[in-house]
Write a structure and sequence with these properties.
heterotrimer; A: mainly alpha; 12 helices; disordered N terminus; C: 316 residues; mainly alpha
Chain lengths: 302, 620, 316
């Protein structure tokens, strides 16, 4: 005789993600995030605010040369010192955060939505479409993201739209892979089969039956994509192939001040630390989400 | 005191995500004298497995043992530290889990795992342990005992794995063995051998055992005393005889009552009227399977082979089969989820297209499917309103207000409160979910409902209620059902006609009354005989299967009898050479066999031995 | 299907993928952007010289012919002429590839044992204080940009402590001491991220096994935590762990770019950065293909290990 519902045989990973806890949204949030998660959330919120309000609260203009010395140390007047031209590092960072956060958000959003849609579509369509799409996107995965970015920049230059596209394309295959694997699992669920037997079309099944059950893991994945893009773009800027002067994101700031490294000037370290706090903050938030979502985080790759 | 095991005031709590703790075992006390087999009986959520694990001081993650004492011999289990607990487990106390397939490590050979307990506790050398293991294999009647240990998990069948797990437990000569639903996951025809093996070994060694189960009939064979549990509390304790014949607690009585199959059928009048009209569903020569199409256009893995059946309007057809019989595939083919490779399917006189996309919406509406596991059959992200509203919108084009009214009607029809509509399915119980499942099927106003093991995952009491509901619905709405199950008693209770599937072939088709009367297909005979009866001593009376008659190698040819390997009445030179044909008996049954009607009446399976009454000519 | 057929199938798919990758790389670099000849000669060139250069570079041929031409050149070991240095690409690569492999090899040899140990230990003592602390630490390490690690390393070890020099220079036959001093910081920077990544993925793979029913059975037989992880979970986790190691090592291919640039290390990655800056397409294409090949080779190796360690696939 078959066992009653609750005696479990093997515990397997449940593709439906974390169970929906009952309760108000705030209580839910508190339960989901541990101490480190709350710190991460605070950091992320901080940077989002900076990205929006940065230029309004910056003490000096982005290009204003205000210090007498280049690479001045941290002081009351210049809280993060001055850069190689004598500009205020704090202001530069506040302006630069816009590019870093803004570009990364846009690219991650693009990569996530496109990847999720393609993965969903591949999972509910026939075998052929699935095979072809997966082969193509697998090919893209084989090109390490920085290499791909270099190739794109070499071919098309470093304009902001292009950087956005490059970053999105680099990380789209990863989002596709996760989305497809989740969707394929969910496609086997009996409620999907019931819907099919009813005569529902592919779009209904993809968007109404399957998607709501994948949202949580995909949101987590979005967070990861964001981190990857920040690191990629700032790395590119560091090499001089990213955001071009006169605009500067945090990576470019590190690059232009690299000569101050021998003196230990804050102008070099601070922008790099700023990037690190942003990415670590996002990682802390992702890690403290329960269940399958953090398992994905552990398994994902830059 | 002669008690080997003493539990007093045991209390186990579980911790939910929110941090709240709730007791899943409350104030449980009992004791087990040496050499006795005690059964823990209960439905899901009764705490029986939790108690069994607590005997070893173990609690699953998310649970902890909050209070109470457990004594095994002189040892106070609660006071042991983790090192001492490790010494106890697998050595003096052994555990046999429910699912052998999940309990063995797929990456290591089976012998390594069977003797692991002995090696961990340093009881004997590896060579000695292996020898002992082979001895135990022999006493458990495992095939090829010398070499079976070299195999891996995926190379051994379920029944053999269960016995290997028993060997794994016995290798250290424990004083207490805990059997946790060991045969629940097995087919009923495999279960018998495993039960016999366990009982023999437990009796031979005079072991003390705890047998956890939800199946009273099985427990009646194995246990000396029974503890009945419900929601973590002990309802009744007593000897097996007493509980079976004169239960005193109302819950125990309800449990016993639920296991007696109750007939739920339409009146005779309907049957006659029905017979004259054309059938609602007529299938002929159906072939279906999975994988690429190979020669003859047949799929690589053929699951259904030449299936034919008819369902009259308002009638119920039962499909009985064990695992691998193809019964679920049959449902999927009819629903359109799998395209058949051959044969015809006629619905209400019109051919039913093989693929969903080719069927009309009306055809899709009139056939609905209800699955076994309500957890996966209902979308956890949707509320009940959404789930029930969709078919209403899709098939009938109802708008919001009309939908709301209809949903209330549907909920009423399946005996659920109206306020359940706003909830998500994850919050509902198994029985409630299955009712929603049914309500969803009803929302389409179908003519035929395909029920794929709909009660198999439910507790007996809940399942009985669902069956009642289904019978009622059938009366009120003149529905037809295709009722698929592996449980012969359920099928006999609710269905007018029954077909029996074995390995993709229809081996027998009969009316409900005629099913358990001779003549019988040898497999049906085996199936019926294997269902444990709720009386002590049944297991002993169902004598050991004599060795099967010898038969030569199979001739190459399509359609040889699928039951050949296990058939006790097979004929060398006939059964392994040509395909069997359908024999129509006097009583209106159709049997797929080489033997004739008369021969089958006289042939008895050695399974039914001495002292046991064969099934009556007119079974109830 | 047995193990050999499975592996052969994987190799076949890898070849196909490599072909697709080559098409992608070629399309992006050679087909789409503006006229390379124009770019090479600058604004003041006359149409005749441009046309002549185009013919010389083969740019006037149809796309698929150019692709085939390039592919054949690649396969026969002659990927063309470097536009910026005017030497065969082959020579440049032959000079730099061994250095990159050396760096990658040392980084792999150092990081893999450390990462596996950390990952397995964390899994064994799951949810203990140590595990939680390690989790936070590795989480942060994975998120950190390499140039931060590199700059901090230079700051601490070169500027403040004067133990190591800021540029990585090792003469052609270095003694062990010189070798260590030259390679310490680049290797350290590279290891920083991949150790954390591999450790996390190893931990996840082992824990995934530890949460299964057969481990519960082992616990109930009295197995100690060490035995459970080492004798039970690990054999089943070999596949996912091999995968994690391969993917992380492939990250080395891209991550080396920053490291080679900061420390002025003469490897393939910095060659590629130069190629980008100079818009030197043939060199760029060849370097890109090398990296992709390396990635595929690593993934294939991981697949083979996974197949070999799975008795179900092995013994059929």
């Amino acid at each position: 005789m078959m066992p009653p519902v609750s005696s479990s045989a093997d515990q397997q990973l449940d593709p439906q993600g974390a169970v929906q806890p009952v309760g108000s949204p705030r209580r839910r949030l508190r339960r989901w995030l541990s101490g480190s998660g709350l710190i991460g959330l605070a950091v992320v919120t901080f940077w989002l605010l900076i990205a929006v309000l940065g230029p309004l609260i910056a003490p000096h203009g982005v290009g204003a040369i205000v210090a007498d010395d280049a690479f001045a140390p941290m002081s009351a007047q210049f809280s993060l010192g001055s850069d190689y031209l004598g500009r205020d590092v704090l202001s530069r960072i506040l302006y630069g955060a816009r590019y870093t956060v803004g570009l990364a958000l846009a690219a991650a959003l693009l990569a996530s939505t496109a990847g999720t849609s393609l993965g969903l579509f591949a999972a509910v369509s026939g075998r052929w479409i699935d095979e072809v799409a997966s082969r193509l996107l697998d090919a893209l995965t084989c090109i390490p993201s920085k290499i791909f970015a270099l190739v794109m920049v070499a071919a098309f230059g470093s304009s902001v739209p292009l950087l956005l596209l490059t970053a999105a394309l680099s990380y789209l295959p990863g989002a596709y892979r996760i989305s497809r694997s989740l969707a394929v699992n969910l496609n086997q669920m009996e409620y999907v089969q019931v819907a099919r037997a009813r005569g529902e079309g592919r779009i209904h099944i993809a968007c109404i039956e399957i998607l709501p059950n994948m949202i949580h893991p995909m949101l987590t994945d979005f967070g990861l994509r964001f981190v990857f893009v920040v690191l990629l773009l700032s790395g590119l800027s560091f090499l001089g192939l990213g955001v071009q002067p006169p605009a500067a994101d945090l990576g470019s700031l590190v690059r232009e001040n690299i000569s101050g490294l021998a003196d230990g000037a804050p102008a070099v370290i601070m922008p790099a630390l700023a990037i690190a706090t942003l990415t670590i903050g996002v990682n802390l938030v992702i890690d403290s989400l329960p269940g399958r979502t953090s398992r994905i985080a552990a398994g994902a790759l830059r | 005191m002669n008690d080997l095991v003493r539990i007093a005031g045991l209390r186990v709590v579980a911790r939910a995500d929110s941090g709240d703790e709730s007791a899943i075992v409350k104030e449980v006390s009992f004791s087990i004298p040496k050499g006795e087999v005690l059964a823990l009986i209960g439905e899901s959520g009764s705490g029986k497995t939790t108690i069994a694990l607590a005997l070893m001081g173990y609690a699953r993650s998310g649970c902890r043992i909050a209070a109470g004492s457990v004594h095994i011999g002189d040892t106070d289990v609660m006071s042991l530290d983790s090192r001492q607990l490790s010494d106890l487990r697998g050595c003096r106390v052994a555990y046999i889990a429910q699912s052998a397939a999940a309990s063995f490590n797929p990456a290591k050979p089976l012998m390594d795992q069977v003797i692991e307990g002995a090696l961990i506790h340093g009881l004997m050398t590896r060579a000695a342990a292996e020898e002992k293991a082979v001895d135990i294999f022999r006493s458990l009647a495992l095939p090829d005992p010398e070499h079976i240990g070299r195999r891996y998990l995926h190379q051994v069948s379920g029944g053999q794995l269960q016995r290997l797990m028993a060997a794994m437990a016995l290798i250290t000569d424990p004083v207490l063995v805990i059997l946790d639903e060991p045969t629940t996951a097995l087919d009923v025809t495999t279960q018998i051998e495993v039960l016999r093996a366990f009982k023999k070994v437990v009796r031979e060694r005079g072991m003390t055992a705890v047998y956890v189960s939800h199946d009273l009939a099985v427990v009646a064979q194995m246990a000396d005393r029974i503890v009945v549990l419900n929601r973590g509390e002990v309802r009744e304790t007593g000897s097996t005889t007493q509980i079976l014949t004169a239960p005193s607690d109302p819950y125990t009585k309800a449990l016993m009552a639920a296991t007696k199959p109750v007939e739920r059928l339409a009146s005779e009048v309907n049957i006659e009227r029905r017979a004259a009209a054309p059938p609602l569903l007529a299938i002929d020569g159906l072939l279906a399977g999975y994988g690429r199409r190979e020669e003859h256009g047949l799929p690589r893995r053929l699951v259904l082979n030449d299936i034919g059946l008819t369902i009259q309007r308002g009638a119920t057809l039962g499909v009985i089969g064990e695992s691998g019989s193809g019964k679920s595939t049959l449902a999927r083919v009819i629903a359109g989820l799998l395209a058949p490779a051959g044969g015809t399917v006629l619905f209400d006189g019109a051919p039913l297209a093989p693929r969903l996309a080719q069927r009309t919406r009306e055809q899709l509406r009139r056939i609905q499917i209800v699955f076994q596991n309500a957890d996966t059959a209902l979308n956890p992200a949707h509320t009940v309103v959404r789930i029930l509203g969709r078919p209403l919108e899709f098939y009938h084009g109802l708008h919001e207000v009309a939908r709301g009214k209809r949903i209330a009607q549907l909920l009423d029809r399946v005996r659920l409160p109206a306020d359940i509509a706003e909830r998500r399915c994850a919050d509902l119980s198994g029985g409630q979910k299955q009712r929603i499942n049914l309500a969803r099927a009803l929302a389409a106003e179908p003519d035929l409902i395909l029920c794929d093991e709909v009660t198999s995952a439910l507790d007996t009491v809940v399942a009985a209620a669902i069956l009642d509901l289904m019978a009622e619905l059938r009366r009120e709405l003149n529905l037809s059902y295709l009722f698929i199950s592996h449980d012969i008693s359920t099928v006999r209770a609710i269905c007018d006609e029954v077909i029996v599937l074995y390995a993709g072939c229809k081996v027998e088709s009969a009316s409900r009354h005629a099913l358990s009367a001779v003549p019988l297909h040898p497999y049906t005979d085996l199936l019926i005989a294997s269902v444990p009866e709720m009386r002590q001593g049944w297991l002993e009376q169902v004598g050991p299967s004599a060795s099967l008659p010898p038969v030569g190698a199979n001739a190459h040819g399509p359609g040889l009898c699928s039951f050949l390997q296990r058939c006790p009445v097979r004929i060398d030179g006939v059964c392994n050479v040509t395909a069997p044909s359908h024999v129509v008996t006097r009583s209106g049954k159709e049997i797929l066999c080489h033997h004739s009607d008369e021969q089958l009446r006289h042939l008895r399976d050695p399974l039914r031995v001495v002292g046991h009454q064969p099934a009556a000519e007119n079974a109830k | 299907m047995n193990a050999m057929t499975l592996i052969a199938k994987r190799i076949g798919i890898a070849m196909l993928t490599l072909l697709l990758v080559s098409i992608v790389v070629f399309s992006i670099t050679a087909l789409l952007p503006g006229d390379a000849a124009q770019a090479a000669l600058g604004q003041s060139a006359t149409p005749e010289t441009i046309a002549a250069l185009r013919a010389q570079l083969g740019l006037d041929q149809p796309a698929h012919l150019r692709y085939l031409h390039w592919l054949i050149g690649l396969l026969s070991g002659n990927p063309g002429q470097s536009l910026s240095n005017n030497v065969p690409v082959r020579e440049l690569i032959a000079l730099r590839l061994p250095k990159s492999l050396l760096l990658a090899g040392v980084a792999a040899a150092v990081s893999v044992p450390i990462a596996l140990s950390i990952g397995i230990l964390s899994a064994m003592y799951r949810d203990s204080r140590l595990d939680r602390a390690l989790n936070l630490v590795t989480l942060s390490m994975v998120a950190v940009p390499e140039f931060l690690v590199a700059t901090l390393a230079v700051l601490i070890f070169a500027v403040k402590l004067h133990w190591l020099s800021a540029l990585s220079y090792a003469p052609d036959n270095p003694g062990m001491g010189q070798f260590l001093r030259a390679y310490a910081m680049p290797v350290m920077t590279l290891c920083f991220v991949i150790v954390a990544q591999m450790a996390r993925m190893t931990r996840a793979a082992v824990i995934d096994q530890v949460s299964r029913s057969y481990v519960e059975m082992a616990i109930l037989k009295g197995a100690s935590p060490a035995r459970i992880v080492l004798a039970h979970a690990l054999p089943n986790a070999v596949g996912p762990i091999a995968n994690a190691v391969a993917l992380s090592l492939s990250y080395l291919l891209g991550g080396a770019i920053i490291v080679e640039t900061i420390f002025n290390y003469p490897g393939i990655a910095s060659l590629m950065v130069d190629a980008v800056t100079n818009r030197d397409m043939p060199l760029l294409q060849a370097c890109a293909m090398i990296f992709c090949c390396a990635y595929l080779a690593l993934v294939l190796l991981a697949d083979v290990v996974a197949i070999a360690s799975n008795p179900r696939l092995r013994s059929q």
